[in-house]
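Chain X:
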Amino acid sequence: MNPDDVRGARCGIDTVEIARLEKLVRDKTPEELGRLFSQLELQDAGNGPGRTASLAARFAAKEACSKLFPREIALGVIELADFSTRRDAYGAPVIEVSPSARAVLDRHRIAAIRVSLTHTDTSASAIAWAEPRVTKVAWFGRLLYHLFPYRRGVVLGNLRRVFGGYIPESEILKLAQAYYAHYVRFLLEFIRLPFMSEARRQAWMRIENVEVALRAHARGKGILLLTGHFGNFEVSTVAGIGQFPGYRGLFHFVRRPLKPKLLNDFITWRTRKAGFGTLTKRGSLEAILDLLASGAIVVYVFDQHAGKGNGITVDFFGQPAGTFKSVALIALSTGVPVVPAYSWREPDGSHVLRFEEPLPLIENENIGEAIRRNTRAYNQEIERILLRYPEQWIWMHRRWKVTGR
């Protein structure tokens, strides 16, 4: 059978006896029931005679959805409560997923889960099926992949590390070609940006959830912006953050020097011209602490390999990876909020820069363990973002250089 056919035929079916569900609801406290059903599900079910049948249908939907991902359910990555049912404007059932379940769907390249519900006087049934995400590849992406395969082995190897066993090889090849297309667009946009008017730049870039970053900055401790090489980070930097002239001079980027030196000098000049400071990742800890104490916003590109001197080994997509420990160290010692930020390119060619809620600080009596746990949490956030738009990440980078723990 064609593996693509298997991917498109992913389906789960479940039937629940209403009497069994009635006993389950009766035996659970409201708090326990709230951990299984969302507040919207409980509200939609009402309090009338049809409540138990309605909840039974929703429970069957959760079971049907979970059967789409037996491995993740068995490992405890997701659970029934990560799936909930709501009604759309036409009254049809729609599945909503938690952030954990969304990451699972993204790794399987599933755009959404469709569901059909029904019930009789004695039982409720649900059928859930996965809607595959379509990877569109521009012709120049295929051309570059085949004719100018720069680091193609690294790209494919990294993609297989993340998606191998989750999607067929044919889809991995499509993602690789889509990445090469992104690389072409990235370079063209990089060249085009300096010649764009301010009005055109603002129309080109949409900013989401910026109030999160503004609230965090209002605490007066500065901010650590956790990000990576997502979308066109050069465009999001200049065209996105540049929309806030009041914050000019407050942003400082921690990054590695590029090769060749001429390119690094050009990027540094362009960054500073746009009103942003730059810091090297090696030997800048004191400067970063001073900047944060003054209320600065330090942007930390977190998705590159870190050697033993600068990093620790923690999992990245389930495999050991050298990861920078300085973000966790700074957050633990200063209490500075760590705010995830990332960008992506929309199908129409516009760009989005989005900020997320600050990540909770994980404390532990053992400082080494606290650093490890927080660093792993930062990697998990990078994983989640990467899976949303995988073709717009730097697959050419050798992220997994660690061979053992």
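Chain Y:
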Amino acid sequence: MDLDFTEDEIQRYSRHILLAEVGGTGQAKLRAARVLVVGAGGLGSPLALYLAAAGVGTIGIVDHDHVDLSNLQRQIAHTTARLGMGKAASAAEAAQAINPLVRIEPHATRLTADNALDLIGRYDLVCDGTDNFATRFLIADACALARRTLVSAAVLRFEGQLSVFKPHLGGPCYRCLFPAPPPPGTVPSCSEAGVLGAVTGVMGTLQATETLKEILGIGESLAGRLLIWDALASSFRTVRLRPDPHCALCGPARTITDLSAHRDAAEAPACAV
């Protein structure tokens, strides 16, 4: 591992390097890491910015949408001046402005069954900040098939959830928690139910923290646990998750071995951003 740092890097990352759990070796791990952020909205905005600030060497940002005025209440990577701009490019511009030393790879495309494995396979770790269940399940399935760690967060109104899924290392997968998408119309979108903007900031920042922990190999992973935050009650709680022996994705008799079932999946709003 390359431990040679420029004077600029030493100054920029000095507060990291001072941490015994990070140091120069940890900062080199961050510089060598490749992380894919899917969704440049309320979760993906603080997530991408903090990953760039931390010195994660390569950050991919996937989003096919464009910046809308209603996004700016929570999607802090975007600005009024960039209304109408593609979100992937806008978030990339914001992240690059924070840290020109990292590589930002914007992907202005929709993640689909045809491109998911290729895109996900280019990165070491994937962060899900998307806003519909079809894409969430596509990401979860693709990560499991590609043996990539998934850091997944979701928000709605005043609540947030966060977990890490590593079925390739023996932990539960996303489908162990949610076996299948809910029926259409049973879960409201943020445009229907609303969301406090700062809640997405907290959850996106927690998602960034868990991502950095996974890269560095420090602390206790959220793999096998679901973190639930109630902003109105100012309370955090965790729920233990276990692998489902009947899981269609990671169980011994799994039936999901490719992404073909996602080709006709209809988008349904998720508790997201």
